[in-house]
């Protein structure tokens, strides 16, 4: 088994490509060991590596977020853990835990359904595939008074380039196609 790695715009994250499907559909984002331990045996093992602070699963990649140690110290342990897990044939998520699309509650005013549908379609077709290339994900959270609220995950969360991506890329795209959009803001 050969696992490729790719750097991302976020220096605190690294994308690992095991050459296999990680999640058939959806994404999963873990920000602490307790949460990971309940849902994903692989994420729980990855959090045992000193310095690992986040694990994100996409279709064919795992994005690791770290603090502290250099990648040269963490990377071999992450590679070994991912390889060992895939070689064992164990599932990525525990039984009964499907990929969490986004469990956050969406909010928008009644009557804005058409606007929200257009925003979601643009995110799905133009934004999410692009940010997945960088090991992250961005999902719709809400729309109110011309402001779109988005949830940033994986490499996008905490990325120094995320404000530029959000304001200059996504905001301009949404404003171009949806005149009702005035601003875009990231939420947790």
TrEMBL record:
InterPro entries: FSCA_dom_sf (IPR034904), Nfu/NifU_N (IPR014824), Nfu/NifU_N_sf (IPR036498), NFU1-like (IPR035433), NIF_FeS_clus_asmbl_NifU_C (IPR001075). It holds the Pfam family Nfu_N. Coiled coil: none annotated. Residues 3-89 form the Scaffold protein Nfu/NifU N-terminal domain. Belongs to the NifU family. This is NifU family protein.
């Amino acid at each position: 088994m050969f696992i490729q790695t790719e750097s991302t715009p976020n220096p605190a994250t690294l994308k690992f490509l095991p050459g296999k499907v990680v999640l058939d559909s959806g994404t999963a984002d873990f920000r602490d060991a307790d949460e990971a331990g309940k849902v994903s045996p692989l994420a729980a093992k990855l959090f045992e590596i000193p310095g690992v602070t986040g694990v994100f699963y996409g279709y064919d990649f795992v994005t690791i977020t770290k603090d502290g140690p250099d990648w040269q110290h963490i990377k071999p342990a992450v590679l070994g853990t991912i390889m060992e897990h895939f070689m064992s044939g164990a599932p990525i998520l525990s039984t009964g835990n499907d990929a969490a699309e986004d469990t956050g509650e969406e909010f928008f005013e009644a009557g804005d359904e058409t606007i929200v549908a257009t925003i979601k379609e643009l995110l799905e077709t133009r934004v999410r595939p692009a940010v997945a290339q960088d090991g992250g994900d961005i999902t719709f959270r809400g729309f109110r008074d011309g402001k779109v609220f988005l949830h940033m995950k994986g490499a996008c969360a905490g990325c120094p380039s995320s404000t530029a991506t959000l304001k200059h890329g996504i905001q301009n795209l949404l404003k171009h196609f949806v005149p009702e959009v005035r601003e875009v803001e990231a939420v947790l």
